């Protein structure tokens, strides 16, 4: 297991999969490294690849707006990163070999942060972090506890941009995350 600096450098110099060829910036993650909550997305999009910061594009802004309304901030309450640290071409889903090449970095991040709550944003993160058996429409909002960590999946914020009817479920799920967070803090 690497400490933060070495881990960051490993990711920066990574060439374990094809995605390294087209990256402008590696998108490592952002937020409080001692946070109780860890959000995990899929992979960087164009805005993230340009800036090196996760969830800064349209979908990210939507997520940030919802989290800000719940008074959850990157500075204090959560850390956010992705399954893949480099952008897939044309924002396609990461291939299985790309996700598996990158997952050890994510596991290392989680081992350093030791979050009490992990929230998967969308079906790709859900598949690799929680279960291949789960379906996002069926299992979103459902809590499981694994090795003492509460885990949940909700819709990816980009899905809300395509289908407004998902917004109410997304909001419901994030409120459940906030409730769990308060419960944990008061323990
Ligand atoms: N979508 C993701 O899954 N991650 C990002 O960082 C941006 C968009």
Structure summarized in a few sentences:
This protein is α/β, with parallel strands linked by helices and 187 residues long. The protein has eight helices and six strands.
Explain what this protein looks like in three dimensions.
With 187 residues, the protein is an alpha/beta fold. It has a single domain (4-186), classed as Uracil-DNA Glycosylase, subunit E (3-Layer(aba) Sandwich), CATH 3.40.470.10. The protein is 43% helix and 14% strand. The protein has 8 helices and 6 strands. The protein has helices at residues 4-12, 46-51, 58-69, 96-113, 123-129, 136-139, 157-162, 167-185, and strands at residues 30-31, 37-41, 78-82, 117-121, 144-146, 149-154. β5 (144-146) and β6 form a beta hairpin. The longest helix is centred in the C-terminal third of the chain and has 19 residues, at 167-185. It is globular, with a radius of gyration of 15 Å. It starts with a helix and ends with a helix. The model has no long low-confidence stretch (mean pLDDT 98). Bound molecules: uracil. Uracil is lined by residues 27, 41-45, 48, 54-55, 57, 59-60, 82. Uracil binds at residues 27, 41-45, 48, 54-55, 57, 59-60, 82. Residues 28-175 form the Uracil-DNA glycosylase-like domain. This is Type-4 uracil-DNA glycosylase. One of its GO terms (molecular function) is 4 iron, 4 sulfur cluster binding. Its EC number is 3.2.2.27.
